[in-house]
Each structure stands twice: as C-alpha cells, then as structure tokens.
Amino acid sequence: MAAVDAAAWVRDFAALVNENATELTALDAAIGDADHGTNMQRGMAAAVAALDDSTPGSPGEICRQTAMVLIRTIGGASGPLYGTFFLRFAAAIESGSDIADFARAFRAGLDGVIARGKAEPGDKTMVDALGPAADVLEKQVAGGGSAQQALDAAVIAAEAGRDATTPLVARKGRASYLGERSAGHQDPGATSAALLVRAAGQALR
Ligand code: ADP
Ligand code: MG
After folding, report:
1. Residues that place a CB less than 5 A from ion ligand 2
2. Is it the case that residue 2 has pLDDT exceeding 80?
3. Assigned fold of 3-203
4. 14 lines ligand 1 (CB under 6 A)
5. Listed residue (53, 56, 44) closest to 18, CA to CA
C-alpha cells in the first residue's frame, strides 16, 4: 500500500480507540456489558506491541499479524469479528498498493464479519458502519475518485451509519437480549468500526 500504509492504519486505530475508550465502554454499559472500550484497548495495544516487536514487510502480513493478535487478546464478540475483518482484508490485499486494492480488501473484510456474525444491515452492529463505508469506497473507485476523496467519503458514510444505529432495535449480540429497550442507544461496535475507517482516512493518504 504505497498510498496505503497498513502499519500506520493499525497504529492510528489504536490511538483513536485509546482516545475514545471511555465512550466505547459507556455505550456498551447502556446496552451490553460495559467492556467494549477495554476490550478494544487491550487488543489494539497488543497489536501495536506486536508491530513494535516486528513489522512485517507487506500490508497483507501486517494485517494478518494484527488479526491473530486481536483474536488472541480481545475475547468477547468483537475479538473474533475484528480478527476476521483483518484476516480477510489481509488475504485480499496481500501486497496491493492503491485505493482500488484497499476498497476490494475492505469489502472482503466486511464479508468475513458478516459470514462470521451473521448480522444484516440494520441489526445494530459494526456492520452498519462498515457496510456504508465499503459501498462508498467502491463507488468512489468506480468513479475515479482519488484515495483521499474515497477515504473522506468513507469516513462520512461510516459515521452516518454509526449514528443511524441509535434508533434501531438490536438483533445480534448482547444488546439483542434487551429487545426494544436497546433502541435509543448508539451501538458500541458501530462506533469503534467508524474509528477504524477514520484511522484509514488519517493513515492511508
Ligand atoms: P461482547 O458483546 O462480547 O461484550 P464487545 O462489547 O467487545 O463484545 O462488542 C460488542 C459489539 O460487537 C456490538 O456493539 C456489536 O457492534 C458487535 N457485534 C456483536 N455481535 C455481532 C454480530 N453477530 N455481528 C456483528 N457485530 C456484532
Ligand atoms: Mg461488551
């Protein structure tokens, strides 16, 4: 990823998770078990520590290493889901280097999350932030948008998708146990997923 620096992406995501950990946990306290911020902080700190220890030479290897660390350290629903995202992203990007490669790999990562978690759009999960970002990335690439334009648009789409989770009733994950009472709260996983896209917007231009 000449334009796309995978290590910078992982590091920027970790930094954003740190800055927003209290909010992520507060959101999860409302409709889950109050651990999403600490889960993500623990996982991303371990992913950064692994990069500090050794940074692989290709984006695919960097994302594969990150995936394995997240699966090992996060636990909870989000560990395997983010792990699967990075694993499928890794397999699709390998040593790809442009925004078209990124868009294709992002879609593959999302497909992995859906295959693993079985969430559909509107189920009030991370899919509601990742899905609109994947759509917009593909649209921008098809329309000849620059990497910066594509990523800026993806950030807007992910954040709109995150915000749109608030009125939804959760149909997957712990929040679904609350039924109608899950409505009126922003989904924690959609919130962290929007940070993942924001980190890409910072790191990959
Ligand atoms: P846990 O629910 O095990 O405590 P976390 O609190 O770390 O795990 O993560 C909760 C987030 O995971 C939710 O806000 C939601 O976005 C996401 N999530 C849960 N189940 C699924 C699923 N089946 N598919 C996609 N995302 C899911
Ligand atoms: Mg939780």
Report:
1. 28, 32-33, 35-36
2. no
3. 1.25.40
4. no
5. 44
Whats the size of the chain, residue-wise? 205
Whether 174 is in the pocket of ligand 1, judged by its Cβ within 6 Å, is yes
Q: Is 128 in the pocket of ligand 1 (CB under 6 A)?
A: no
How many other CB atoms are there within 10 angstroms of residue 174's CB atom? 17
Instruction: Record the tokens describing residue 59, joined without a space.
Output: 């984006």
Which residue type occupies 155? V
3 state DSSP class of 173: coil
Burial (CB count within 10 angstroms: exposed 0-12, middle 13-18, buried 19+), residue 52: exposed
Distance CA 141, CA 146 (A): 8
pTM here?
A: 0.97
Per-residue pLDDT of 185-196, as tens digits, reads 999 999 999 999
What is the position in ligand 1's atom list of the atom closest to the CA of 192? 16
Ligand 1 proximity of 47 Cβ (cutoff 6 Å): no
Q: Give 107 Cα–ligand 1 centroid separation in angstroms.
A: 19
